[in-house]
Amino acid sequence: MLNRPTVSEKCFDAGNVVFLTLLMVLTVYPILYVAFASVSDAASLMAHKGMLWKPLGFSLEAYASVFNNPMILKGYGNTLFVVIVGLAFNLSLTAFGAYALSRKSLRYRKPLMLFIVFTMFFSGGLIPFYFTVKGIGLADSLWALIIPHAINTFNLIIMKTSFEAIPDSLEESAKIDGANDFVILFRIMLPLSMPVIAVMMLYYGVSHWNSWFHAMIFLQDRSLYPLQLVLREILLQGEASSMAVGATEGDVAMLSVTLKYATIIVATVPILLVYPFLQKYFVKGALVGAIKG
């Protein structure tokens, strides 16, 4: 027989519902504000004060100006290159490193892990990092956003822990059948670690998509700017007005307000659309990689 919840338990549950509802509103409202503002009439939006609960009028002029800007399309292309190629590098090298470190037969495994974990807490600093990247010829190249960030130590540890949780008997059986390390990795370890692979794709993908700081440091050629760096220019350097070609000065001032919001939506929506497909693996993969087997 089930026990009825006590008054204190009911109050606790009600408090949780209220708190989580408020937290959801605080989280969702900024996104809704930007979405409503991006399709609002520019003049009405400039005159509006306070919170925004619906579009003020309806206009897609800001989106038309965004997609007519060649820098936006160029930034999309550069970002997609960095995300796709970067993910290939990230997943491959992280998987190889995690598999090697998860093998109990690896010599000096503990000292190697000590040196790897050391990099999570100490680094040479930004200036030595810049000169290193420049010295190997990656400066002013999209490869400067990919190769120096090929392996994230935290992600490496998560995947290593996931591999260690897989029973040794599977590896032993594969070796009896003549499988080498590459066969074991690609046919046993990775298929059994798909939730963790999905988490790695999300971590690395979001990191590449949102990256702008290193692009600002290493890239001088504006044609190589990723989308987030183009967005930074529009938001912080007042370049939104330059996108409204052929408009009067007053129209440019009004349109620049909605242009900023439209650009944010254009830069954010793709990653939001990808997340629901990976979300079902996210919690499971993160837990599997965080618990030592």
What fold name stands as the CATH topology? Answer: MetI-like fold
Overall radius of gyration:
25 Å
**Average of the residue pLDDT scores:** 80
Main β-sheet description? none
Shape: globular
Architecture per CATH nomenclature, i.e. the level-2 architecture: Orthogonal Bundle
Number of DSSP helices? 14
The number of domains is 1
Give a topology summary:
Blueprint: H1 7-38, H2 42-47, H3 61-68, H4 70-102, H5 109-121, H6 126-135, H7 153-164, H8 168-176, H9 181-192, H10 194-210, H11 213-218, H12 227-236, H13 240-243, H14 249-290
Transmembrane segments: 12-36, 80-100, 112-131, 143-163, 184-206, 259-278
Membrane topology: Multi-pass membrane protein
GO cellular component, one term: plasma membrane
List keywords for this structure.
293 residues; mainly alpha; MetI-like fold; 14 helices; 0% strand; globular
Describe this structure in words.
- The model is unreliable at 244-250 (pLDDT under 50).
- The protein has one domain (61-290): Orthogonal Bundle (MetI-like fold), CATH 1.10.3720.10.
- The protein is globular.
- The two termini are 37 Å apart.
- The longest helix has 42 residues, at 249-290.
- It contains 14 helices and no strands.
- With 293 residues, it is mainly α.
- Keywords: Cell membrane, Membrane, Transmembrane, Transmembrane helix, Transport.
- Residues 76-270 form the ABC transmembrane type-1 domain.
- Belongs to the binding-protein-dependent transport system permease family.
- This is Sugar ABC transporter permease.
